[in-house]
Automatic annotation (TrEMBL), chain B:
<dbReference type="InterPro" id="IPR036179">
    <property type="entry name" value="Ig-like_dom_sf"/>
</dbReference>
<keyword id="KW-0732">Signal</keyword>
<dbReference type="InterPro" id="IPR013783">
    <property type="entry name" value="Ig-like_fold"/>
</dbReference>
<dbReference type="InterPro" id="IPR050150">
    <property type="entry name" value="IgV_Light_Chain"/>
</dbReference>
<keyword id="KW-0472">Membrane</keyword>
<dbReference type="InterPro" id="IPR007110">
    <property type="entry name" value="Ig-like_dom"/>
</dbReference>
<dbReference type="GO" id="GO:0019814">
    <property type="term" value="C:immunoglobulin complex"/>
</dbReference>
<keyword id="KW-1003">Cell membrane</keyword>
<keyword id="KW-1064">Adaptive immunity</keyword>
<dbReference type="GO" id="GO:0005576">
    <property type="term" value="C:extracellular region"/>
</dbReference>
<protein>
    <submittedName>
        <fullName>IG c445_light_IGLV3-21_IGLJ2</fullName>
    </submittedName>
</protein>
<dbReference type="InterPro" id="IPR003599">
    <property type="entry name" value="Ig_sub"/>
</dbReference>
<dbReference type="Pfam" id="PF07686">
    <property type="entry name" value="V-set"/>
</dbReference>
<dbReference type="GO" id="GO:0002250">
    <property type="term" value="P:adaptive immune response"/>
</dbReference>
<feature type="domain" description="Ig-like">
    <location>
        <begin position="1"/>
        <end position="97"/>
    </location>
</feature>
<dbReference type="GO" id="GO:0005886">
    <property type="term" value="C:plasma membrane"/>
</dbReference>
<keyword id="KW-1280">Immunoglobulin</keyword>
Length: 120, 107
């Protein structure tokens, strides 16, 4: 079964750093793009960025460029999303999603989501 | 940057047909994907490349794309179809773009 399993919910303070993970299984992790999507409470889906684990080619939405870092460790089939200094406005659900072999492909498998709460 | 516009809400009676639109400049030249998201759940792909259905998605779900509008059509709507629906494209200047989402209410 193809699946993405994300790390658990996080509660952090403003200014703290954070790295959340997304582990793929049941498919060739290095051959498919993985994207990250933010959903703020009660709001829609926002694309943050996408990575090709095979060669770590990474693209960011202009809205998130410089705000987060996307990476992948193909040895353990895991993608990451990290912040160096969280803000209260980063409070949201974050989803990883598997796309196809090209960035034009749909996100056919989604992780269960990681809720990040940033509060003092 | 490329913008996708969806109506905030659509209402339909059970058994009728729901049509959810996604507007964008010359969207007919792009490939459109559609996702369904129920409360408290992750999104699920329901239509890809304009009109293809993933395995497990009922035939009641169909898609079309032409000109400046793509449409997700849900025939014989059921109570279980009540959800938020999002369109998505890939654009050469914006990469991945999501529409703002449409809340489908089954009356």
């Amino acid at each position: 079964e193809v699946q993405l399993v994300q790390s658990g919910a996080e509660v952090k303070k403003p200014g703290e750093s954070l790295k959340i993970s997304c582990k793929g299984s049941g498919y060739s992790f290095t051959s498919y793009w993985i994207g990250w999507v933010r959903q703020m409470p009660g709001k829609g889906l926002e694309w943050m960025g996408i990575i090709y684990p095979g060669d770590s080619d990474t693209r960011y939405s202009p809205s998130f460029q410089g705000q987060v870092t996307i990476s992948a460790d193909k040895s353990i089939s895991t993608a990451y999303l990290q912040w160096s200094s969280l803000k209260a406005s980063d409070t949201a659900m974050y989803y990883c999603a598997k796309a196809g072999t090209t960035v034009r492909d749909a996100f056919d498998i989604w992780g269960q989501g990681t809720m990040v709460t940033v509060s003092s | 940057s490329y913008v996708l516009t969806q109506p905030p809400s659509v209402s339909v009676a059970p058994g009728k047909t729901a049509r959810i639109t996604c507007g964008g400049n010359n969207i007919g030249s792009k490939s459109v994907h559609w996702y369904q998201q129920k409360p408290g759940q992750a999104p699920v792909l329901v239509i890809y490349y304009d009109s293809d259905r993933p395995s497990g998605i009922p035939e009641r779900f169909s898609g079309s794309n032409s000109g400046n509008t793509a449409t997700l059509t849900i025939s014989r709507v059921e109570a279980g179809d009540e959800a938020d629906y999002y369109c998505q494209v890939w654009d050469s200047s914006s990469d991945v773009v999501f529409g703002g989402g449409t809340k489908l209410t089954v009356l």
